[in-house]
């Protein structure tokens, strides 16, 4: 074990070298002959609005993918436990690989092969800033997540949906000394640049803020993202980037879409995600991932 989103115009548009939007083609109709891995982001990509997907349809696809020797990977900023809950092993749906906490934690064939944690000093500095009446947050790591008891009921429900393996702490400082890979911040009013600047200055580059929505910011370990986690899996399986396809919709999917042989932006994708992709698929609410996979893995 190693220890260690900006929507603009309509679907199907990329960005060329001059910054002009261009139309992205659909993925190849037939399965690429060198394809060995399919990686999917979850929220806004694999999952419909409301965090659902067509389970019977995917169950059949999963069997055909396995028979074809193609691995299935889930890559998300969410907690490993939450991601696995969507794919019950008893139903034959367990992913071959899981990249969680924005690439900080990687699971391969049911075994953790990467755990990345923020330096303790950086964690202490971040918590000192957040303890001064800042946004709601949850700190997540290899041993679970840590949530302040003082958070509002609404924020508890939101944060624990994405981090179901958690424990309460009485004070922010109680998180010091724990193994933390990511701190997810939420403020329904949005984040002022002055606050983000103050946070970044306190962290000194040991953790970096990544905007994941108008009201959401993740503090992550630099160099760790979905692409880096996917690369850990590919190396573990002795596969190359060109043998992987990835689906995503947001700016934090861009590195992953750019690094694989078949980067596919959803129809609802942000401008940043489309700029990184080679192809486009229907939107998440139109089951775009399943539409592409059914073309690649047709029923007999």
From TrEMBL:
Which terms does the record give in the GO molecular function aspect?
Answer: magnesium ion binding; phosphatase activity
Q: Identify the stretch(es) annotated as Disordered.
A: 1-31
Q: Which InterPro entries match?
A: HAD-like_sf, HAD_sf
**Highest taxon of the source?**
Bacteria
Where does the secretion signal sit in this chain?
none
Q: Which PANTHER family match?
A: 5-AMINO-6-(5-PHOSPHO-D-RIBITYLAMINO)URACIL PHOSPHATASE YBJI-RELATED (PTHR10000:SF53), PHOSPHOSERINE PHOSPHATASE (PTHR10000)
Name by which UniProt lists this protein: Sugar-phosphatase
């Amino acid at each position: 074990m190693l220890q260690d989103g900006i929507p603009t115009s309509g679907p199907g548009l990329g960005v060329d070298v001059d910054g002009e939007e261009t139309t992205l083609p659909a993925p190849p109709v037939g399965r690429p002959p060198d394809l060995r891995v399919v990686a999917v982001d979850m929220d806004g990509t694999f999952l419909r609005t409301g965090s659902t997907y067509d389970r019977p349809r995917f169950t059949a696809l999963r069997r055909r993918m396995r028979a074809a020797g193609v691995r299935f990977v889930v890559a998300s900023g969410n907690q490993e436990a939450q991601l696995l809950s969507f794919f019950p092993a008893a139903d034959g749906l367990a992913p071959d690989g899981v990249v969680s906490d924005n690439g900080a934690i990687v699971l391969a064939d049911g075994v953790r092969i990467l755990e990345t944690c923020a330096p303790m000093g950086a964690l202490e500095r971040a918590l000192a800033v957040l303890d001064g009446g800042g946004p709601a947050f949850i700190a997540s790591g290899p041993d679970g997540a840590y949530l302040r008891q003082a958070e509002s009921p609404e924020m508890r429900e939101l944060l624990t949906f994405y981090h179901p393996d958690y424990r309460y702490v009485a004070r922010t400082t109680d998180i010091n000394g724990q193994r933390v890979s990511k701190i997810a911040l939420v403020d329904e009013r949005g984040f002022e640049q002055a606050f983000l600047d103050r946070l970044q200055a306190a962290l000194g580059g040991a953790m970096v803020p990544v905007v994941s929505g108008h009201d959401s910011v993740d503090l992550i370990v630099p160099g760790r993202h979905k692409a880096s986690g996917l690369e850990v899996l590919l190396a573990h399986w002795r596969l190359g980037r060109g043998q992987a396809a990835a689906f995503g919709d947001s700016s934090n999917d861009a590195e992953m879409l750019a690094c694989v042989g078949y980067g596919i932006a959803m129809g609802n994708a942000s401008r940043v995600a489309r700029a990184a992709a080679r192809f486009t698929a229907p939107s998440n609410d139109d089951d775009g991932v399943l539409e592409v996979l059914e073309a690649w893995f047709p029923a007999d």
